[in-house]
Amino acid sequence: MGAAVKRLPPLKSLQAFRFAAEELSFKQAADQLHVTQAAISQQIKTLEQFLGVTLFTRLTREVVLTDAGRQLLPYVSRGFETLEQGVERLGEDPRPELLNLTVLPSFAGRWLVPRLGSFQQQNPELSLQLSPSLTVADFEGTELDLAIRFGQGQYPGLESRLLLKEYLLPVCHPSLIDLDRPAAEQLQALPLLSDVAPEMEHIREEVLEQIGVDVDRASSRLLVSDATMLVEALLSAQGFGMLRYSLCYELLERGQLVCPLPMLLRCAYDYYLVAPQRHFNRPKVKRFESWVRHELQQVEQSFNRFCDQTGITHPEA
């Protein structure tokens, strides 16, 4: 059986005593705690009543510690110092020389990794550890600093910051489509390549209805659970499919893929930076966040150009 819990004085009263005793001034204690001198005096009285002893001798222009006050002060001071150190340690970075990231595999492979060289050139003192993952990793008990997730921004116990809004569009290899002829009837003859990720639910039916294919009679020739595999299948001219703009905008600009239909859907998921709130205060995390937001401006600018060139109405317009 454990020891009985001892009843302690109110924390505010102990804090008021600490500052008043160290400064030997109720006024200076009030200034440091941003309260009134009367509030300090009341907290000291509360503590004296709780302990049943007098802690200060009140003189005309000063206060002096009694023997009881002098005896209590070092314990209270050490207690608060220990508490402050513990709170401060929570925000400390155990590996300031290493940035540990977990990232959605498709985003890591198709977008992030090819650009990391510029981040490392700007931050040569930092090493980077990248862990592709489809799920949110547990930050507790690990050296993980930050996650880039694809979702709806709801991660219990973690702070999430919107990084990039995502959109979906139909794409295929240019050898499979004659852009001078109606696209819908050409697409009806092509296999539909489908991503079975949660955010792609109901997308297949909507696309097939757009091109006039009976949903019940249509079949996908390839089902994948990672968008990187879908990109490779599309580049090898195996069919057409819906792809995230962030993963295909450079392929569209280079002519390696084409968008055969003036169709654009808002994705159910977006990209977020995710971590415990205190991690966002780490200098290396701040630098990475600033860098990745700057780099992602290219995606947003490309998306605006794409809407202007194709005549597709911007979803946010």
Short description:
This protein is of the alpha/beta class and 317 residues long. The chain is built from 11 helices and 12 strands.
Describe, in plain words, how this protein is organized in 3D:
Keywords: DNA-binding, Transcription, Transcription regulation. The chain is an alpha/beta fold and 317 residues long. The chain has 3 domains: 11-90, Orthogonal Bundle (Arc Repressor Mutant, subunit A); 98-164 and 270-303, Periplasmic binding protein-like II (D-Maltodextrin-Binding Protein, domain 2); 167-268, Periplasmic binding protein-like II (D-Maltodextrin-Binding Protein, domain 2, 3-Layer(aba) Sandwich). Helix content is 43%, strand content 18%. It contains 11 helices and 12 strands. The protein has helices at 11-23, 26-33, 37-51, 67-90, 105-112, 116-122, 183-188, 203-211, 227-235, 245-253, 283-310; strands at residues 56-58, 63-65, 98-103, 127-132, 146-151, 159-164, 167-172, 192-195, 220-224, 240-244, 265-266, 270-275. A 5-stranded mixed β-sheet has the order 4-3-5-12-6. Strands 10-7-11 form a 3-stranded antiparallel β-sheet, sandwiched between helices. Helix 1 crosses helix 2 (26-33) and helix 1 packs across helix 3 (37-51). The longest helix has 28 residues, at 283-310. The chain is elongated, with a radius of gyration of 31 Å.
